[in-house]
Write a structure and sequence with these properties.
Blueprint (H helix, E strand, L loop, with lengths): L4 E5 L7 H9 L2 H6 L1 E6 L1 H11 L9 E5 L15 H19 L5 E4 L4 H5 L8 H8 L6 E6 L2 E5 L6 H7 L2 H17 L8 E4 L14 H13 L6 E5 L1 H9 L5 E4 L2 H12 L4 E5 L4 E5 L16 H14 L1
Parallel strand pairs: 1-2, 1-4, 2-3, 4-11, 6-9, 7-8, 7-9
Antiparallel strand pairs: 5-6, 5-10, 10-11
Helix pairs in contact: 1-3, 1-12, 8-9
């Protein structure tokens, strides 16, 4: 069986991306899982390799696409930098070009700084939105996965007040259906067991402390049940996460970012993976950011990056 070809972007040169990429691809199991196109800057990787005391990051199963952007000038690990921001964005866009050309089976993205990239591209929201736009995808879903626990988000990176105001039946329905379809197609789960979280405490207590469950969420769930027989909800988020963690459900549908990410990260620790559902190609990433506070110190944990690569390889076969 042919190994999948995975494009791995280096992330923000000033963050922990170069370190966790090098740590991950140094692992024998990672190297055996796929062939790699590493997109980044050789001089930055060389700096990171010295910090990590890596002897060599090149091998027959790793091809470095060297874009000498940030490394051609001095920059400091741990600090936002416009040149680094442009470089990080360029790495991702090149990976997308490779994917469109059919040269890679999956993309794994190391962390970028949204703040930095917005200083050079005000339209940038995040990796997920950029990938969807470049691939011409209207409906996409951000899923987080760690072991038995998978969570899909109806709304993503926005204020809580805006998230509540923007909730609607259409988006909830499409998130449920796309999650179910992806679990069937990519994870091999014939009849996905999905649980939909309510928005309000105790699902609004019958309308006493919130009406979104009755007016918005429940109608979307009832519609989605036509194609997903093992779908339940809305259920109280405080109770359903434990069941998701224990494997009772294949995925949970969450209404807003922190409803999903706070409990998820407590469970996932350094093994969580971000997956973009709805793209014509597999895309994963670690579930953390650039960690500027520890960048360049050689102490960053590569566990989440390793899991992102393993999962990308698995989903691409």
């Amino acid at each position: 069986m042919r190994k999948p070809v995975i494009a791995v972007t280096m992330g923000d040169p000033a963050g922990i991306g170069p370190e966790i990429v090098l740590k991950a691809i140094a692992k024998k199991g990672i190297r055996q899982s796929a062939q790699f196109l590493l997109i980044g800057d050789s001089s930055v990787l060389t700096r990171a390799a010295r910090i990590l005391k890596c002897k060599n990051y090149s091998a027959k199963d790793i091809y470095l696409v060297d874009l000498a952007d940030a490394g051609s000038r001095k920059f400091s690990f741990g600090k936002t930098d416009k040149v680094c921001a442009r470089a990080a964005l360029r790495y991702v866009k090149l990976a997308i070009e490779f994917a469109k050309a059919g040269l890679v089976d999956a993309i794994v993205t190391a962390p970028v700084s949204k703040e930095s990239i917005r200083s050079v591209d005000k339209a940038f929201v995040g990796h997920t939105e950029l990938l969807a736009r470049e691939f011409g995808v209207d409906k996409f879903v951000m899923m987080m996965a760690a072991g038995n626990l998978r969570v899909s988000l109806v709304t993503r990176h926005m204020s809580l007040s805006r998230a509540v105001k923007s909730l609607n039946q259409k988006d909830i329905y499409e998130t449920i259906v796309l999650t179910g379809r992806s679990l069937k197609r990519h994870f091999g789960i014939k009849e996905p067991r999905l649980a939909v979280c309510g928005l309000n405490p105790h699902c609004g207590e019958g309308g006493e402390i919130g009406i979104e469950e009755k007016r918005i969420i429940r109608p979307a769930v009832m519609r989605a049940k036509r194609s997903l027989k093992r779908l339940v909800g809305p259920l109280s988020a405080e109770a359903v996460f434990y069941d998701g963690y224990r494997g009772r459900y294949d995925a949970l549908i969450c209404m807003y970012h922190d409803q999903a990410l706070i409990p998820f990260k407590m469970v996932a620790r350094d093994r969580g993976v971000n997956i973009t559902l709805g793209l014509p190609i597999t895309r994963t990433s670690p579930d953390h950011g650039t960690a500027f506070d520890i960048a360049g110190k050689g102490v960053a944990d590569s566990g989440s990056m390793e899991e992102a690569i393993f999962l990308a390889a698995q989903l691409s076969r």
